[in-house]
Amino acid sequence: MERPKKQPLHVILLLILAAEAVFILPFVLQRIFRTTFLESFSISQTELGSCFSAYGIVALASYLFGGPLADRFKPNLLMSVALILTALGGFYLATYPNLYNLHILYGFWGFTTIFLFWAAMIKATRIWGGSDKQGIAFGFLDGGRGLVAALFGSVGVIIFSLFITKEIELTSIEERRIAFKQVITYTSIAVMVIGFMIFFLLRFNDTSNIDIKKTSKLLTIENFRIVMKYKAVWLLMIIILCAYYGYKMTDLFSQYAEQVMNYNKIEAAKVGTYLLYMRPVIGVVIGLLADRTKASLWIVVGFFLMTVTSLIFYLGIIDDSTTLLFILSIGTMALGVYSARVLYFATLEEAKIPLAVTGTAVGFISIVGYTPDIFAGLVMGYFLDADKGAVGLQNAFGVMGVFTLIGLIASYLFYRHSNK
To answer: Would you list the domain boundaries of the chain?
Structure first.
């Protein structure tokens, strides 16, 4: 394979912007404004989880067929269409549809963000990184995504605050609904603008374009046979599944701050936003370290940190009298979650998977790896609805600990396999 020429900086900046913008409406707003979202739509934790399940079911098929699609069409076309369609869904979200239509909307987002977007974005990032900068490429991508999410979150909190004319505790649910509607609307406008930017500005150099065109001839079942021969592919499925479940659990940090640490709604939303600002720092630092050592080594470290902090939350050690421990624990867990998340696709180069079948490999791995989109929300919702407050949250973190322990074992096996 000819080594791709060095890509300009603006390409990775556009990828960073698009890679997080497409998920702001389906996921990030709920992470930052979780209790407000539940109140505004008059739904329970389990019902919100079922919306994520609708997303995950559609995403499951989308991963399979979207992967080969990314090996055939240019990323700017697929990604721009995905962003624009996702933004249109956001405008519909702002009308506060009922639960049935909310399920349909999340299924629609499963199509737009995964079938059209996901594998194209991963392949574009791998091309940008070349053969020797995969760690920093995916470090920039995920770290930059964290910064974009944090900025969206900060602006969302500001907009929400502007439409709250008195103390948050004194407002009615209807007043908070009106304020949150403005957050959704302005976010949708921003996502649509980014979609047009990607279409017109995301361009690779000639060598990369040739690579992309060559892959259009490879849209066959043979691609799946190629990637299934790699032991690393099967381990990556488990690693991503466990790491992604851990990432989904970060949705509960703002709720923990509100219900256990006794923060108000705006303070709790800020907790979720502040954590997002850690992602750029972690992404760049871990990416640099991975390029100097091995990406798989730092994934092992990430799972170890997640497992330890999950145990701390499960044991109920943290309450409103241990603020410093709360801050240190969520910071450490975020370090573990983001370390694993930054690097799991950077290992494609470490596993020697051919660039020409990157889209297919990503799609195949993601079929299992991202199944938490189907069940994580339901599992969390079950425990949170069964036991309100601290107990439900502790049990949810206990389940996370099981997943992260499995991920720790799988990542260690991957590390040993790559060394051989």
So the answer is: 9-419
User: Cβ distance 19 to 121 under 8 Å?
Assistant: yes
For domain 9-419, is the CATH number 1.20.1250.20?
yes
Taking the chain, what is the end-to-end CA distance rounded to the nearest angstrom? Answer: 23
Instruction: For the full predicted model, state whether its pTM sits above 0.85.
Output: no
276 and 146 in contact (C-beta within 8 Å)?
A: yes
Could you tell me if residue 42 is left (phi over 0), alpha (psi between -120 and 50 degrees) or otherwise beta?
left
CA distance 94 to 100: 15
Give the whole-angstrom CA distance, residue 162 versus residue 247. Answer: 30
Going residue by residue through the chain (420 aa), what tens digit of pLDDT does each one get?
344 467 778 899 999 999 999 999 999 898 888 889 999 999 998 899 899 999 989 998 898 888 778 878 888 999 999 999 999 999 999 999 999 999 999 999 999 999 999 889 988 888 887 766 778 888 888 878 878 888 898 899 899 999 887 777 778 889 999 999 999 999 999 999 999 999 999 887 654 443 444 444 444 577 778 888 888 899 999 999 999 999 888 888 888 888 889 888 788 878 877 877 787 888 888 888 888 888 899 999 999 999 999 999 999 898 888 889 998 998 899 899 988 988 888 888 788 787 777 777 888 888 889 889 889 888 988 998 888 888 999 999 999 999 999 999 999 999 998 887
Distance CA 164, CA 167 (A): 8
Residue keyed to tokens 């249109």: 88
